Every structure is written in C-alpha cells, then in structure tokens.
Amino acid sequence: MRNLAWLLLVASTLPAQPPSPSPLQNPAASAGQADVVRAQPVGTMSDLMVKIIYPASDAVFYIATREPKTEVEWSELQGKTLALAESANLLLMPGRARDQDRWMQDAKLLLDAGTAAYRAARRKDVAALEAVNDQLLTSCTSCHQHYRPNYGRRPAPDATAPQSARVAPSAPSAPVPLSAPVATTPPAPSIVGRWKLRAAEDLRADGSVARYPWGQHPVGSIVVEGGACYLQIASSDTPSFSGGSTPVMEQMKAALLSTYIAYSGPCAINASEGSVTLKVEAAWRPDYVGTEQKRFFRFQNGALIFGPAPNSMRAGNETLTRRLTLDRVQ
Fold first, then answer.
1. pLDDT at 172 over 60
2. pTM of the predicted model as reported, rounded to 2 decimal places
3. Hey, where are the domains in the chain?
4. What's the number of CA atoms in the CB half-sphere (13 Å) around residue 271?
5. Cα separation of 57 and 60, whole Å?
6. Of 17-31, 120-134, 298-312, where does mean pLDDT reach its minimum?
7. What is the separation, in whole angstroms, between the first and last Cα of the chain?
8. Which of 18, 48, 153, 255 places its Cα 20 to 30 Å from the Cα of 198?
9. The domain 193-328 is classified under which CATH number: 3.30.70, 3.40.50, 2.40.128, 2.40.10?
C-alpha cells in the first residue's frame, strides 16, 4: 500500500509525455559560447515511480524479511537506497513539480527518508533501516493526501434509488489516465506460506509488554498451505533434564506442558476480515482437538502479526492481548 500511494499519485499529476526540458546555463556560456545544457527528462513520471521509486522503496519497507547477508547484497541495497534518495531530486526538477509549495515539501520528505536509508545501508545498519520505514511511509502518504485525497473512494449509493440499482461502480471515483501502469500494482500480502516466529508477547491496553509467554527467546513457526494450518511454539529457555527417574520425568512433563504449544488442522482464511479459523485435528492438549480456533492477522513492515482476539488473555486482574510477530520464510 505504501508504494501504491506513490503509484496512484503519478497517474494524476503529469501527462504521459515527458515535460519540455528546462535550460540550465552551461558554465562555458559565460565565456561567450552559445550552447546551453538542458535537464532532459527521459521517462514519464509513471516510469520514474514504477521503475525507480517502487523497487527502491520496497527494499526498505521489507528489510526485516530481506536482510542482506553478503557484500554483494549489501551493495545492491546501497544502490537502491541511493536511487531512492536521488529520485526525490528528480521530483524537484523544473517542469516536474506540480507547484512550488506543497509538492516541494513532499519531495523533500522523500529526499530526507531516502538519504537516511542510504546512510543506514552504507553502515549496514538493519535496525536503522527498519526505523526509516515510518519516515518513508509518511512521505508517501503525505504526497498522496495532498494530490489524490479521494482516489479509490466510491461514491455513496443514491438512497432514493431502488436496491437493485445500488451497484458499486467498477472504477474509482477519480479517473485513471491511460498511462497509469495498472499491471504493476503490487499484490496484497497473503498469510499463505511458512512464517518463522520472531517474538511472542502479551500486551497491556497501553501497548506495554506485560509478559513473555514463552520467554524472551521463543522458537516456532506457522505454516498455512493447501487449506491447512500448523502452529508450533516453544521456549528456548527450557532446561535440559538428565536421568530417567520418576521425579525427573514428571518435572520434564510439567515444564514441556507450560513451555510448548502445537496444533494443526484444516483452516479457512477470511482475508477481508484478517482472520483464519482452524478446525483442530491434532494438538499438544487433548481438549483442543475438535475445537475451532479463530486467530486474527495483519501485516506490518513485511512481518506477520498474529494472535487471538484483542483483550482475550487474562493474567491476574489484567486483560491482555497476545501478539506473535513472524517473518516470512517462504
């Protein structure tokens, strides 16, 4: 959606053909020569957004799941973040700006975000790149709000029209020029796939962490594939047990029961609601078998946020919300 905001802005701001070049005085002209160097846009604004800004910003938005591992990968990321910053300068070129006020300010937001991303990539600082996400998103949404605030909003149906006539229009309220690269619109993220657990937290209403149900270093995964779902979480802090005496075995059973969870079965995904309902066929606890477990999900900076309904967990007198954060593996 972040990249889509820029993409939609492109379609409405400028014509499909590049604007006429604006002259820039060649230093040699001061010596009496007549030649003039002109800043010559080669592609359209749509080309600039789709072929440069789109892939460059995507590399920043999904850094959590696409972290560079080699020098070559870091070099590629540095190139993309540099292109992101320099693309803001292209937006500031004479002839490309829609106005000299708000447009310039929004382009400066992108320039600042791109510069911060490039510097972080030069330092190979993943945490700093993740921190740039919000700054980059702000630059995208700000420009979209100023230049296409009503894009995608369907007009309200006529209350006086018959029910059969109240059909939602198939096109957005604002027309999309033929030059808009519709085919390049990124697909909506999907929960289908394999996800690796990064964190498991129980949150208070104010967002603070009340407890870590499987410790601060949990391990686990969620797999959603072929109409089935499998979830497994364990604590990596569970101590090893030696010996096979009855007391030791009982201690081990108690520890495993409190630090491990797993269940699987067929599931139904409701993408519009952001939920998945699983009919449990196998579970670490017999009382789970045969039940329906509904979980809610959303996506944040490329990660999957997964858990039961908000405020459905109890800890003493507190009502908590469980949040699992997972990164896509495949």
1. no
2. 0.44
3. 2-24+34-147, 193-328
4. 6
5. 5
6. 17-31
7. 21
8. 255
9. 2.40.128
